[in-house]
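A brief tutorial aside. Many learners find it easier to grasp structure tokens once they have seen a single protein encoded end to end. The record that follows does exactly this for Heme oxygenase. Read the sequence first, then the structure, and try to relate runs of similar tokens to stretches of the chain.
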Amino acid sequence: MLAALRDGTRDHHTAVERRLGLPDRIRTRDDLAAALATLLAAWGPLERELAAADWSGLPLDPRVGEAAALLRSDLAALGVAVDRPAAGSSGLDLATTARAVGGRYVLLGSALGGRVVAPEVERRLGLRAGEATGFFRRVGGTPGRDWRAFRLAVGGREWSVVEVTAAVDAARSTFDLVGRVEVARPSG
């Protein structure tokens, strides 16, 4: 399953990285706020829907690696008021275990890229480590442990071809959603 997710989403991963342009698009605190607000617009609904998905058969906390609260905290540190929780639906089908695995794969994997983004943003903007970059650093979280738990849970189960296909489809859709969410530049 994990190899299929990695191989089946490689192009989608590359496309979302190019579209978001992190860390290069962040040159000012306003740029950082805009990027965080864009991510929250996707993350909030995705996390809510993933937590409500059918995780039966997997020894995994359905909220593993959640980070929307860190996005809200970072935005607050930048003086941007955020409605709680992010309104709306992702519009994705993440209800089954396999589809939820695909969605969670994308969100958990983002923590790895955040380790590269955070120091560069902090350097450019003159921020302390974790100052308005808690989401990228996953401050207070355990991304390595979360990823290992996910990998073990997913790898410890047999998956049908139909389930693997559904998981890859959901992961692609999740990448696409994160890459296309647009929000107005916040003022603050």
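Self-check: The radius of gyration is 16 Å. If you spotted this yourself, you are ready for the next section.
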